[in-house]
Amino acid sequence: MFKLFIRLICLSIISLIAFLIISLYSGGEKFRWFGKKVEEKTETIGRTADSIKGKGEKAIKGIEKVKEKIKDLTGKE
C-alpha cells in the first residue's frame, strides 16, 4: 500500500514536470488547441442535451396518457 502512494506521488511529479516542459517549449499552443476542442465538444453536447430534454418531456406526457387509458380500460389503479 505504501509503494502505491509513493508511485502515485512520483507519477504526479513526473506529470507536472512534463507539463511544465511542454508548456515552456511550445508556448502553450498545444493546450490552447486542446481547450478549443473541448469547448467545441461541450457546445455539441449541450445542444444534444437540450434536444433530448424536449423529447423526454413529450415522452413523459405520452406515458401519462397511456396510464390513464389503461386505468379507464381495466378500472384498476
Show the helix and strand layout:
Blueprint: H1 2-26, H2 29-74
The low-pLDDT segments are none
Q: What coarse outline follows from CA principal-axis ratios? A: elongated
Evaluate the radius of gyration: 26 Å
Mean pLDDT across residues: 86
The chain-level structural class is mainly alpha
Percent helix, as a range, is over 70%
Q: Please, how many helices?
A: 2
Keyword list:
77 residues, mainly alpha, elongated
What does this structure look like?
This protein is mainly α and 77 residues long. It is 92% helix and 0% strand. It has helices at residues 2-26, 29-74. The longest helix is centred in the C-terminal third of the chain and has 46 residues, at 29-74. The N and C termini lie far apart (56 Å). The mean pLDDT is 86.
Short description:
Helix content is 92%, strand content 0%.
